[in-house]
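Narrative of accomplishments. A recurring question from our advisory board has been how the design workflow behaves on a single, concrete structure rather than in aggregate. To address it, we present the structure tokens for one chain from the evaluation set, followed by the sequence designed for it. No filtering or post-editing was applied between the two.
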């Protein structure tokens, strides 16, 4: 019998609300979850150890009144907006026979996306989801004693001018070299389908590993828990 996977489908939910929901599910629940969302208000999201002055042109962000968050997981800095496709997985270690460490988790999730979407030359490159030599999605992880979380933001589309608010990070993947964002990134919309079709394809592949159970969360009913996702600047 396949383990249950509780599927949460959102639409245009802000990344702040999404991250707070994910942190609540991670810290207060034991079920497996997949959370899918398309679209958020424009926001800059940093990893928990990121330093805002080193990563973001704060004056440009202020001029556009863009919120800056620090999420509860590690990883790099991303800009999300109404054209970002989000997929998050919270999985109990006992329910999936892979080593619960960053690299095996990445390899497994990359295999899911490659199988679901069948995009030529979609692959994992260092820690990024890529198509050819360009990045289409960034991810971060949080691993606990009994469960792990892996969340991804895919670029369905992006505004090149918006990406200029991010500095070239000092720590970056080798394959990127010194390419600016516009030469380093690619858009999923260039490879056909719609966001809704891509999410449905992912659900079909997940159904080979889990029994899918639709789930409607209520963030206001979660028990008290540690909350580390925070707004740094509005």
């Amino acid at each position: 019998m396949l383990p249950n996977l509780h599927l949460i489908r959102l639409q245009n939910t802000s990344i702040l609300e999404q991250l707070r929901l994910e942190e609540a599910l991670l810290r207060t629940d034991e079920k497996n979850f997949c959370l899918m969302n398309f679209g958020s208000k424009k926001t800059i999201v940093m990893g928990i150890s990121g330093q805002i002055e080193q990563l973001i042109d704060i004056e440009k962000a202020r001029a556009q009144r863009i919120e800056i968050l620090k999420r509860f997981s590690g990883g790099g800095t991303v800009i999300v907006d109404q054209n970002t496709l989000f997929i998050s997985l919270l999985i109990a270690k006992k329910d999936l026979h892979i080593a619960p460490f960053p690299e095996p988790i990445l390899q497994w999730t990359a295999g899911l996306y490659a199988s679901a979407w069948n995009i030529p030359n979609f692959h994992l490159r260092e820690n990024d989801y890529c198509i050819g030599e360009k990045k289409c999605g960034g991810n971060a992880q949080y691993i606990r004693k009994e469960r792990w979380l892996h969340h991804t933001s895919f670029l369905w589309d992006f505004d090149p001018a918006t990406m200029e608010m991010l500095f070239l990070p000092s720590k970056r993947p080798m394959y990127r070299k010194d390419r600016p964002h516009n030469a380093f990134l690619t858009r999923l919309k260039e490879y056909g389908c719609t966001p809704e079709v891509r999410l449905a394809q992912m659900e079909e592949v997940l159904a080979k590993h889990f029994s899918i159970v639709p789930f409607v969360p209520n963030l206001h009913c979660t028990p008290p828990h540690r909350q580390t996702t925070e707004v740094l600047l509005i």
